[in-house]
Amino acid sequence: MTQFLHSLPLVGKRTICRQGDPSSGRSVIREIRRQGDPSSGRSGAFTWNSMSGRSVRLKPVPLQSLSELERVRLQEVAFSRLLQDDNLGCQISIPKDGQKRKKSLRRKLDSLAKEMSKDKESTPQAFGILLSQVISNDRAHKQRQEPQREEHRDPSDLVSSLLHLTSRKSTKDKELSSSNSSLSSTSETATESPSPSTPEAPPHTRRRGGVSVDCITDLDDNQSRLLEALQLSLPAETPSNRKKQRDKKLSLNPIYRQVPRVVEMCCLHLEKYGLQTVGIFRVGSSKKRVRQLREQCDLGMEVQLDEANSVHDVAALLKEFLRDMPEPLLTRELYTAFLNTMLLDHPDQESTIQLLVYLLPPCNSDTLQRLLEFLATVTAHAEDSQDRDGHEITGNKMTSLNLATVFGPNLLHKQKSSDKEFTVQSFARAEESTAIIGVVHSMITTYETLFMVPPDLQNEVLMSLLETDPDVVDYLLRRKDSQHS
Fold first, then answer.
1. What confidence tens digit (pLDDT) does each residue in 218-256 have?
2. Do 356 and 471 fall into the same domain?
3. Any domain includes 174
4. Domain hosting residue 371, numbered range
5. Rounded to an integer, what distance in angstroms lies between the CA atom of residue 397 and that of residue 280?
6. Separation between Cα atoms, residue 77 and residue 83, nearest integer Å
7. CA triplet 391, 396, 397: central angle to 5 degrees?
8. Residue 72, Cβ neighbours under 10 Å: how many?
9. Continuous segment of H or E residues that includes residue 393
Protein backbone atom coordinates (compact mmCIF):
# COMPACT_ATOMS: atom_id res chain seq x y z
CA MET A 1 0.00 0.00 0.00
CA THR A 2 1.39 3.35 -0.99
CA GLN A 3 1.86 5.91 1.76
CA PHE A 4 2.96 9.53 1.81
CA LEU A 5 4.98 10.84 4.73
CA HIS A 6 5.11 14.59 5.20
CA SER A 7 7.59 15.98 7.71
CA LEU A 8 7.46 19.50 9.05
CA PRO A 9 9.73 22.03 7.33
CA LEU A 10 13.16 22.06 8.94
CA VAL A 11 15.50 24.90 8.01
CA GLY A 12 13.59 25.50 4.80
CA LYS A 13 13.69 21.84 3.79
CA ARG A 14 10.86 19.35 3.40
CA THR A 15 11.15 15.66 2.49
CA ILE A 16 8.41 13.60 0.93
CA CYS A 17 8.79 9.85 0.84
CA ARG A 18 6.75 7.40 -1.14
CA GLN A 19 7.03 3.92 0.34
CA GLY A 20 6.30 0.72 -1.49
CA ASP A 21 7.54 -2.80 -2.08
CA PRO A 22 11.32 -2.54 -2.64
CA SER A 23 11.20 -5.53 -4.96
CA SER A 24 8.83 -3.74 -7.30
CA GLY A 25 11.48 -1.25 -8.32
CA ARG A 26 8.92 1.55 -7.96
CA SER A 27 9.99 3.10 -4.66
CA VAL A 28 10.65 6.79 -5.11
CA ILE A 29 12.01 9.38 -2.70
CA ARG A 30 11.77 13.02 -3.53
CA GLU A 31 13.05 16.01 -1.68
CA ILE A 32 11.83 19.55 -2.05
CA ARG A 33 14.36 22.08 -0.88
CA ARG A 34 13.33 25.68 -0.66
CA GLN A 35 16.14 28.14 -0.21
CA GLY A 36 15.37 31.58 1.07
CA ASP A 37 13.08 33.10 3.63
CA PRO A 38 10.01 30.84 4.08
CA SER A 39 7.94 33.88 4.95
CA SER A 40 8.86 35.67 1.77
CA GLY A 41 5.98 34.18 -0.20
CA ARG A 42 7.08 33.62 -3.78
CA SER A 43 10.82 34.05 -3.31
CA GLY A 44 13.23 31.17 -2.92
CA ALA A 45 14.32 28.17 -4.97
CA PHE A 46 12.64 24.77 -5.31
CA THR A 47 14.64 21.63 -6.06
CA TRP A 48 13.24 18.15 -6.59
CA ASN A 49 15.36 15.00 -6.18
CA SER A 50 14.65 11.36 -6.98
CA MET A 51 16.37 8.12 -6.00
CA SER A 52 18.07 8.03 -9.39
CA GLY A 53 20.13 11.02 -8.32
CA ARG A 54 18.45 13.43 -10.70
CA SER A 55 18.19 16.91 -9.22
CA VAL A 56 15.85 19.38 -10.90
CA ARG A 57 15.72 22.97 -9.80
CA LEU A 58 12.49 24.63 -10.87
CA LYS A 59 12.87 27.74 -13.01
CA PRO A 60 10.30 30.09 -14.55
CA VAL A 61 8.85 28.45 -17.68
CA PRO A 62 6.42 29.63 -20.38
CA LEU A 63 2.81 28.72 -19.75
CA GLN A 64 2.57 26.99 -23.13
CA SER A 65 5.45 24.65 -22.25
CA LEU A 66 3.34 23.00 -19.55
CA SER A 67 1.48 19.82 -20.39
CA GLU A 68 -2.29 19.78 -20.66
CA LEU A 69 -2.48 18.06 -17.26
CA GLU A 70 -0.21 20.67 -15.65
CA ARG A 71 -2.24 23.56 -17.07
CA VAL A 72 -5.44 22.17 -15.58
CA ARG A 73 -3.78 21.75 -12.19
CA LEU A 74 -2.30 25.25 -12.49
CA GLN A 75 -5.84 26.60 -12.92
CA GLU A 76 -6.79 24.94 -9.65
CA VAL A 77 -3.69 26.23 -7.84
CA ALA A 78 -4.27 29.80 -9.09
CA PHE A 79 -7.94 29.60 -8.14
CA SER A 80 -7.03 28.41 -4.65
CA ARG A 81 -4.56 31.26 -4.17
CA LEU A 82 -7.10 33.85 -5.27
CA LEU A 83 -9.62 32.49 -2.80
CA GLN A 84 -7.07 32.44 0.02
CA ASP A 85 -5.95 36.02 -0.59
CA ASP A 86 -9.57 37.19 -0.91
CA ASN A 87 -8.41 40.71 -1.75
CA LEU A 88 -10.56 41.26 -4.83
CA GLY A 89 -13.84 41.51 -2.95
CA CYS A 90 -15.85 39.58 -5.53
CA GLN A 91 -16.86 36.06 -6.45
CA ILE A 92 -14.38 34.23 -8.69
CA SER A 93 -14.92 31.12 -10.79
CA ILE A 94 -12.86 29.23 -13.35
CA PRO A 95 -14.29 30.11 -16.79
CA LYS A 96 -15.56 27.26 -18.92
CA ASP A 97 -14.06 26.69 -22.34
CA GLY A 98 -17.46 26.88 -24.03
CA GLN A 99 -17.61 23.23 -25.09
CA LYS A 100 -21.08 22.59 -23.65
CA ARG A 101 -22.47 25.85 -24.94
CA LYS A 102 -20.79 25.20 -28.26
CA LYS A 103 -22.91 22.09 -28.84
CA SER A 104 -26.20 23.86 -28.29
CA LEU A 105 -25.09 26.76 -30.46
CA ARG A 106 -23.98 24.33 -33.13
CA ARG A 107 -27.38 22.64 -33.16
CA LYS A 108 -29.08 25.98 -33.63
CA LEU A 109 -26.74 26.93 -36.45
CA ASP A 110 -27.20 23.54 -38.13
CA SER A 111 -30.99 23.75 -37.98
CA LEU A 112 -30.85 27.26 -39.32
CA ALA A 113 -28.55 26.20 -42.15
CA LYS A 114 -31.02 23.53 -43.28
CA GLU A 115 -33.71 26.16 -43.72
CA MET A 116 -31.48 28.43 -45.71
CA SER A 117 -30.96 27.90 -49.40
CA LYS A 118 -27.53 27.12 -50.80
CA ASP A 119 -27.34 30.60 -52.27
CA LYS A 120 -27.59 32.27 -48.87
CA GLU A 121 -24.87 32.85 -46.34
CA SER A 122 -23.47 29.69 -44.74
CA THR A 123 -22.47 29.15 -41.12
CA PRO A 124 -19.61 31.54 -40.24
CA GLN A 125 -16.21 29.93 -39.69
CA ALA A 126 -14.50 32.74 -37.77
CA PHE A 127 -16.58 35.78 -36.82
CA GLY A 128 -19.30 35.94 -34.19
CA ILE A 129 -18.84 32.38 -32.91
CA LEU A 130 -17.18 30.95 -29.81
CA LEU A 131 -13.39 31.01 -29.80
CA SER A 132 -13.21 27.26 -29.18
CA GLN A 133 -15.31 26.71 -32.30
CA VAL A 134 -13.04 28.99 -34.34
CA ILE A 135 -10.05 26.91 -33.24
CA SER A 136 -11.92 23.72 -34.15
CA ASN A 137 -12.79 25.11 -37.60
CA ASP A 138 -9.16 26.10 -38.18
CA ARG A 139 -7.96 22.61 -37.29
CA ALA A 140 -10.50 21.07 -39.70
CA HIS A 141 -9.29 23.46 -42.40
CA LYS A 142 -5.68 22.46 -41.78
CA GLN A 143 -6.54 18.77 -41.98
CA ARG A 144 -8.28 19.35 -45.31
CA GLN A 145 -5.19 21.13 -46.62
CA GLU A 146 -2.74 18.39 -45.60
CA PRO A 147 -3.74 15.83 -48.31
CA GLN A 148 -3.42 18.50 -50.99
CA ARG A 149 0.07 19.42 -49.81
CA GLU A 150 1.11 15.77 -49.71
CA GLU A 151 -0.01 15.30 -53.33
CA HIS A 152 2.29 18.09 -54.51
CA ARG A 153 5.19 17.07 -52.32
CA ASP A 154 8.48 16.11 -53.95
CA PRO A 155 9.34 12.44 -53.21
CA SER A 156 12.95 13.44 -52.52
CA ASP A 157 11.69 15.74 -49.73
CA LEU A 158 9.89 12.81 -48.12
CA VAL A 159 13.05 10.68 -48.18
CA SER A 160 15.03 13.54 -46.62
CA SER A 161 12.41 13.93 -43.88
CA LEU A 162 12.52 10.23 -43.07
CA LEU A 163 16.30 10.28 -42.84
CA HIS A 164 16.14 13.34 -40.59
CA LEU A 165 13.57 11.73 -38.28
CA THR A 166 15.60 8.52 -38.09
CA SER A 167 18.71 10.48 -37.17
CA ARG A 168 16.80 12.54 -34.62
CA LYS A 169 15.29 9.45 -32.98
CA SER A 170 18.72 7.82 -32.72
CA THR A 171 20.08 10.92 -31.00
CA LYS A 172 17.09 11.03 -28.67
CA ASP A 173 17.53 7.38 -27.69
CA LYS A 174 21.12 8.08 -26.69
CA GLU A 175 20.07 11.08 -24.60
CA LEU A 176 17.34 9.13 -22.86
CA SER A 177 19.59 6.17 -22.14
CA SER A 178 22.11 8.47 -20.46
CA SER A 179 19.52 10.36 -18.41
CA ASN A 180 17.02 7.76 -17.24
CA SER A 181 14.98 8.50 -14.14
CA SER A 182 13.21 6.05 -11.83
CA LEU A 183 10.49 5.94 -14.47
CA SER A 184 12.94 4.38 -16.92
CA SER A 185 13.74 1.56 -14.51
CA THR A 186 10.07 0.64 -14.30
CA SER A 187 9.86 0.51 -18.08
CA GLU A 188 12.53 -2.20 -18.10
CA THR A 189 10.38 -4.28 -15.78
CA ALA A 190 7.40 -3.74 -18.02
CA THR A 191 9.40 -4.93 -21.02
CA GLU A 192 10.01 -8.32 -19.48
CA SER A 193 6.33 -9.06 -18.94
CA PRO A 194 4.17 -6.66 -20.89
CA SER A 195 0.59 -6.40 -19.75
CA PRO A 196 -1.93 -7.60 -22.32
CA SER A 197 -4.20 -4.72 -21.41
CA THR A 198 -1.60 -2.08 -22.17
CA PRO A 199 -2.97 0.05 -25.03
CA GLU A 200 -1.04 0.46 -28.23
CA ALA A 201 0.47 3.91 -28.64
CA PRO A 202 -1.74 5.84 -31.08
CA PRO A 203 -0.17 7.47 -34.12
CA HIS A 204 1.21 10.97 -33.67
CA THR A 205 -1.60 12.60 -35.63
CA ARG A 206 -4.19 11.32 -33.18
CA ARG A 207 -2.46 12.50 -30.02
CA ARG A 208 -3.92 15.42 -28.12
CA GLY A 209 -0.57 16.85 -27.11
CA GLY A 210 1.64 18.77 -29.48
CA VAL A 211 5.21 17.92 -30.34
CA SER A 212 7.56 19.03 -27.56
CA VAL A 213 11.25 18.90 -26.83
CA ASP A 214 10.85 15.71 -24.83
CA CYS A 215 7.40 14.39 -25.69
CA ILE A 216 6.05 10.88 -25.50
CA THR A 217 6.33 10.34 -29.24
CA ASP A 218 10.11 10.72 -28.96
CA LEU A 219 10.36 7.77 -26.56
CA ASP A 220 10.78 4.20 -27.68
CA ASP A 221 7.74 1.92 -27.93
CA ASN A 222 8.06 0.39 -24.46
CA GLN A 223 8.41 3.74 -22.70
CA SER A 224 5.60 5.24 -24.77
CA ARG A 225 3.24 2.39 -23.91
CA LEU A 226 4.16 2.68 -20.25
CA LEU A 227 3.39 6.39 -20.12
CA GLU A 228 0.07 5.83 -21.86
CA ALA A 229 -0.68 3.10 -19.31
CA LEU A 230 0.19 5.42 -16.45
CA GLN A 231 -2.51 7.80 -17.61
CA LEU A 232 -5.05 4.98 -17.74
CA SER A 233 -4.13 2.99 -14.63
CA LEU A 234 -5.17 5.23 -11.77
CA PRO A 235 -6.81 3.59 -8.72
CA ALA A 236 -10.55 3.28 -9.07
CA GLU A 237 -11.57 3.69 -5.44
CA THR A 238 -10.21 6.89 -3.88
CA PRO A 239 -11.78 10.07 -2.48
CA SER A 240 -10.53 12.03 -5.48
CA ASN A 241 -11.74 9.50 -8.05
CA ARG A 242 -13.55 12.14 -10.08
CA LYS A 243 -10.40 14.21 -10.50
CA LYS A 244 -8.42 11.12 -11.48
CA GLN A 245 -10.99 10.11 -14.07
CA ARG A 246 -10.70 13.57 -15.59
CA ASP A 247 -6.90 13.54 -15.50
CA LYS A 248 -6.79 10.23 -17.37
CA LYS A 249 -8.03 12.05 -20.46
CA LEU A 250 -5.43 14.83 -20.23
CA SER A 251 -2.20 14.69 -22.17
CA LEU A 252 1.28 14.71 -20.67
CA ASN A 253 2.38 16.86 -23.60
CA PRO A 254 1.95 20.59 -24.18
CA ILE A 255 -1.26 21.11 -26.15
CA TYR A 256 -1.14 22.69 -29.58
CA ARG A 257 -1.03 26.48 -29.76
CA GLN A 258 -4.62 27.69 -29.97
CA VAL A 259 -4.57 30.99 -31.86
CA PRO A 260 -7.19 31.65 -34.57
CA ARG A 261 -5.85 31.90 -38.11
CA VAL A 262 -7.43 35.31 -38.60
CA VAL A 263 -5.67 36.71 -35.51
CA GLU A 264 -2.28 35.30 -36.53
CA MET A 265 -2.79 36.49 -40.11
CA CYS A 266 -3.61 40.06 -39.06
CA CYS A 267 -0.77 40.27 -36.53
CA LEU A 268 1.82 39.04 -39.03
CA HIS A 269 0.66 41.48 -41.70
CA LEU A 270 0.64 44.47 -39.35
CA GLU A 271 4.05 43.55 -37.92
CA LYS A 272 5.45 43.47 -41.45
CA TYR A 273 3.76 46.48 -43.00
CA GLY A 274 2.15 48.59 -40.29
CA LEU A 275 4.65 49.34 -37.54
CA GLN A 276 5.58 52.71 -39.07
CA THR A 277 1.98 53.67 -39.90
CA VAL A 278 0.95 56.73 -37.90
CA GLY A 279 -2.30 56.29 -36.00
CA ILE A 280 -2.69 52.59 -36.72
CA PHE A 281 -6.03 51.39 -35.22
CA ARG A 282 -7.26 54.99 -35.12
CA VAL A 283 -7.47 55.88 -38.82
CA GLY A 284 -10.59 54.80 -40.67
CA SER A 285 -10.72 51.88 -43.10
CA SER A 286 -12.71 50.83 -46.13
CA LYS A 287 -15.86 49.10 -44.88
CA LYS A 288 -16.31 47.37 -48.21
CA ARG A 289 -12.81 45.85 -48.24
CA VAL A 290 -13.06 44.84 -44.59
CA ARG A 291 -16.40 43.15 -45.29
CA GLN A 292 -14.86 41.25 -48.19
CA LEU A 293 -11.99 40.01 -46.02
CA ARG A 294 -14.45 39.01 -43.31
CA GLU A 295 -16.59 37.05 -45.77
CA GLN A 296 -13.54 35.21 -47.07
CA CYS A 297 -12.55 34.21 -43.53
CA ASP A 298 -16.09 33.10 -42.71
CA LEU A 299 -16.16 30.92 -45.82
CA GLY A 300 -13.02 29.16 -44.61
CA MET A 301 -10.96 30.43 -47.52
CA GLU A 302 -7.17 30.66 -47.43
CA VAL A 303 -6.76 34.44 -47.22
CA GLN A 304 -3.38 35.76 -48.36
CA LEU A 305 -2.51 39.27 -47.19
CA ASP A 306 0.30 41.18 -48.85
CA GLU A 307 1.55 44.73 -49.33
CA ALA A 308 -1.46 45.54 -51.50
CA ASN A 309 -3.80 45.15 -48.51
CA SER A 310 -4.35 48.35 -46.57
CA VAL A 311 -2.88 48.33 -43.06
CA HIS A 312 -5.99 50.09 -41.76
CA ASP A 313 -8.28 47.47 -43.30
CA VAL A 314 -6.37 44.65 -41.60
CA ALA A 315 -6.32 46.56 -38.31
CA ALA A 316 -10.09 47.02 -38.52
CA LEU A 317 -10.53 43.31 -39.28
CA LEU A 318 -8.59 42.36 -36.16
CA LYS A 319 -10.63 44.70 -33.96
CA GLU A 320 -13.83 43.42 -35.53
CA PHE A 321 -12.96 39.81 -34.76
CA LEU A 322 -12.33 40.60 -31.08
CA ARG A 323 -15.39 42.83 -30.86
CA ASP A 324 -17.78 40.26 -32.32
CA MET A 325 -16.73 37.35 -30.11
CA PRO A 326 -19.87 36.18 -28.23
CA GLU A 327 -17.69 35.70 -25.15
CA PRO A 328 -14.97 38.35 -24.59
CA LEU A 329 -11.39 37.15 -24.56
CA LEU A 330 -11.01 37.86 -20.83
CA THR A 331 -14.45 36.26 -20.17
CA ARG A 332 -17.47 37.71 -18.42
CA GLU A 333 -16.93 35.50 -15.35
CA LEU A 334 -13.71 37.38 -14.56
CA TYR A 335 -14.91 40.87 -15.54
CA THR A 336 -15.30 42.20 -11.99
CA ALA A 337 -12.19 40.41 -10.74
CA PHE A 338 -9.98 41.98 -13.43
CA LEU A 339 -11.43 45.43 -12.73
CA ASN A 340 -10.88 45.09 -8.98
CA THR A 341 -7.17 44.43 -9.50
CA MET A 342 -6.82 48.16 -10.18
CA LEU A 343 -7.72 48.78 -6.52
CA LEU A 344 -4.62 46.89 -5.33
CA ASP A 345 -1.07 48.10 -4.85
CA HIS A 346 1.09 47.92 -7.96
CA PRO A 347 3.06 44.74 -7.07
CA ASP A 348 -0.16 42.96 -6.09
CA GLN A 349 -1.81 44.11 -9.31
CA GLU A 350 0.69 42.27 -11.51
CA SER A 351 0.66 39.03 -9.51
CA THR A 352 -3.14 38.96 -9.24
CA ILE A 353 -3.66 39.66 -12.95
CA GLN A 354 -1.25 36.82 -13.66
CA LEU A 355 -3.28 34.41 -11.50
CA LEU A 356 -6.47 35.48 -13.27
CA VAL A 357 -4.82 34.86 -16.66
CA TYR A 358 -4.00 31.32 -15.49
CA LEU A 359 -7.74 30.75 -14.99
CA LEU A 360 -8.50 31.40 -18.66
CA PRO A 361 -9.14 28.45 -21.00
CA PRO A 362 -6.07 27.61 -23.14
CA CYS A 363 -7.59 29.05 -26.33
CA ASN A 364 -8.22 32.36 -24.53
CA SER A 365 -4.81 32.61 -22.90
CA ASP A 366 -2.94 31.56 -26.06
CA THR A 367 -4.81 34.11 -28.17
CA LEU A 368 -4.30 36.77 -25.50
CA GLN A 369 -0.58 36.06 -25.44
CA ARG A 370 -0.26 36.44 -29.23
CA LEU A 371 -2.28 39.66 -29.18
CA LEU A 372 -0.28 41.20 -26.32
CA GLU A 373 2.98 40.24 -28.02
CA PHE A 374 1.83 42.09 -31.12
CA LEU A 375 0.63 45.15 -29.16
CA ALA A 376 3.95 45.33 -27.32
CA THR A 377 5.73 45.28 -30.69
CA VAL A 378 3.54 48.15 -31.91
CA THR A 379 4.35 50.09 -28.74
CA ALA A 380 8.08 49.56 -29.27
CA HIS A 381 7.74 51.46 -32.58
CA ALA A 382 5.58 54.27 -31.22
CA GLU A 383 8.32 56.92 -31.03
CA ASP A 384 10.37 58.39 -33.86
CA SER A 385 13.82 56.86 -34.25
CA GLN A 386 16.81 56.73 -36.59
CA ASP A 387 18.24 53.89 -38.60
CA ARG A 388 21.94 53.04 -38.86
CA ASP A 389 22.44 55.60 -41.62
CA GLY A 390 20.91 58.36 -39.53
CA HIS A 391 17.67 58.52 -41.49
CA GLU A 392 14.60 59.30 -39.42
CA ILE A 393 12.02 56.55 -38.95
CA THR A 394 8.54 57.79 -38.18
CA GLY A 395 6.88 56.25 -35.14
CA ASN A 396 3.27 55.06 -35.20
CA LYS A 397 2.41 57.20 -32.12
CA MET A 398 0.47 54.30 -30.57
CA THR A 399 1.74 54.00 -27.01
CA SER A 400 0.69 51.16 -24.73
CA LEU A 401 -1.89 53.46 -23.14
CA ASN A 402 -3.34 54.38 -26.53
CA LEU A 403 -3.56 50.72 -27.51
CA ALA A 404 -5.17 49.82 -24.18
CA THR A 405 -7.78 52.51 -24.80
CA VAL A 406 -8.56 51.03 -28.23
CA PHE A 407 -8.51 47.33 -27.32
CA GLY A 408 -9.73 47.45 -23.72
CA PRO A 409 -13.46 47.57 -24.56
CA ASN A 410 -13.03 44.68 -27.02
CA LEU A 411 -11.26 42.41 -24.54
CA LEU A 412 -13.11 43.11 -21.31
CA HIS A 413 -16.82 43.85 -21.13
CA LYS A 414 -20.10 42.66 -19.64
CA GLN A 415 -22.37 42.70 -22.67
CA LYS A 416 -22.33 43.38 -26.39
CA SER A 417 -23.03 46.85 -27.72
CA SER A 418 -25.91 47.34 -30.09
CA ASP A 419 -24.16 50.30 -31.69
CA LYS A 420 -21.81 49.91 -34.60
CA GLU A 421 -19.11 51.79 -32.76
CA PHE A 422 -18.01 49.65 -29.81
CA THR A 423 -17.17 52.14 -27.04
CA VAL A 424 -16.65 51.81 -23.33
CA GLN A 425 -19.65 54.03 -22.61
CA SER A 426 -21.94 51.62 -24.49
CA PHE A 427 -21.55 48.80 -21.97
CA ALA A 428 -20.01 50.11 -18.76
CA ARG A 429 -20.17 53.12 -16.52
CA ALA A 430 -17.63 55.85 -17.17
CA GLU A 431 -15.75 55.06 -13.95
CA GLU A 432 -15.20 51.48 -15.13
CA SER A 433 -13.54 52.58 -18.36
CA THR A 434 -10.42 53.73 -16.52
CA ALA A 435 -10.10 50.34 -14.81
CA ILE A 436 -10.60 48.46 -18.09
CA ILE A 437 -7.89 50.51 -19.78
CA GLY A 438 -5.64 50.05 -16.75
CA VAL A 439 -5.94 46.25 -16.85
CA VAL A 440 -5.08 45.99 -20.55
CA HIS A 441 -2.31 48.58 -20.20
CA SER A 442 -0.74 46.53 -17.41
CA MET A 443 -0.96 43.39 -19.56
CA ILE A 444 0.77 45.05 -22.51
CA THR A 445 3.64 46.38 -20.41
CA THR A 446 4.19 43.09 -18.53
CA TYR A 447 3.36 40.54 -21.23
CA GLU A 448 6.87 39.03 -21.22
CA THR A 449 6.47 37.88 -17.59
CA LEU A 450 2.68 37.57 -17.57
CA PHE A 451 2.75 34.14 -19.22
CA MET A 452 5.75 32.79 -17.31
CA VAL A 453 4.97 30.34 -14.52
CA PRO A 454 7.14 30.99 -11.42
CA PRO A 455 8.81 28.11 -9.54
CA ASP A 456 6.54 28.32 -6.50
CA LEU A 457 3.42 27.70 -8.59
CA GLN A 458 5.12 24.87 -10.49
CA ASN A 459 6.02 23.39 -7.11
CA GLU A 460 2.39 23.46 -5.99
CA VAL A 461 1.33 21.81 -9.25
CA LEU A 462 3.86 19.02 -8.79
CA MET A 463 2.82 18.58 -5.17
CA SER A 464 -0.77 18.22 -6.31
CA LEU A 465 0.20 15.64 -8.94
CA LEU A 466 2.44 13.79 -6.49
CA GLU A 467 -0.59 12.85 -4.42
CA THR A 468 -2.25 11.06 -7.34
CA ASP A 469 0.38 10.41 -10.04
CA PRO A 470 3.93 10.12 -8.65
CA ASP A 471 5.16 8.28 -11.77
CA VAL A 472 3.84 11.07 -13.96
CA VAL A 473 5.74 13.57 -11.80
CA ASP A 474 8.92 11.64 -12.58
CA TYR A 475 8.32 12.06 -16.30
CA LEU A 476 7.51 15.76 -15.98
CA LEU A 477 10.65 16.39 -13.91
CA ARG A 478 12.76 14.56 -16.48
CA ARG A 479 11.35 16.73 -19.24
CA LYS A 480 11.93 19.93 -17.25
CA ASP A 481 15.52 18.86 -16.69
CA SER A 482 15.95 18.18 -20.42
CA GLN A 483 14.50 21.58 -21.34
CA HIS A 484 16.71 23.43 -18.86
CA SER A 485 19.86 21.68 -20.04
1. 444 455 444 444 444 444 444 455 566 566 678 888 888
2. no
3. no
4. 130-136+255-412+426-454
5. 8
6. 10
7. 115
8. 17
9. strand 392-393
